[in-house]
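thought: fold this chain, then report.
action: predict
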Amino acid sequence: MTDRTQGAGGGSTPAAGAKGPDELRQQIEETRSQLGDTVEELAAKADVKGRAKARAADLRDKAGAMTVHLRSTASRAGHRVQEKASHAGHRVQERASHVGHAAQERAAETGHAAGQTVPRRMRAAVEACRRNPRPVMIAGAVGAAVVTAGVLARRHGRH
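observation:
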């Protein structure tokens, strides 16, 4: 054995000698403990399979958390789209109702004015329309739909 040990800087330093057998035993135990810690650290670094398993478990946990986050985000987005579509539907329904009422009023006014200027044969038809404005309104809507379809077909044919 030598009386020199390697220091922290890599150089040699004189070994501190034990002053008695008890102190020597204590130094031996400390050295064994340090050596055991060093061996455990080296074993952990050499355990590639164990480290790979730990890394895989971490990645699985992160992927699971990301999946939960993405599902939550998609669900919130779906609810927002549904709310916006519902709101737009209500607005369209309100506007259509307003336009329908306005058309019904104009038809009634026109019918009244026409009833005073048309021949007797036509007055019966106008009176029937006045008493039953809903079928007239439906017929008008169907006519408007046919005209709209024709316009769209012509536009589509040009492109």
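thought: worth noting. The radius of gyration is 46 Å.
final: tokens above.
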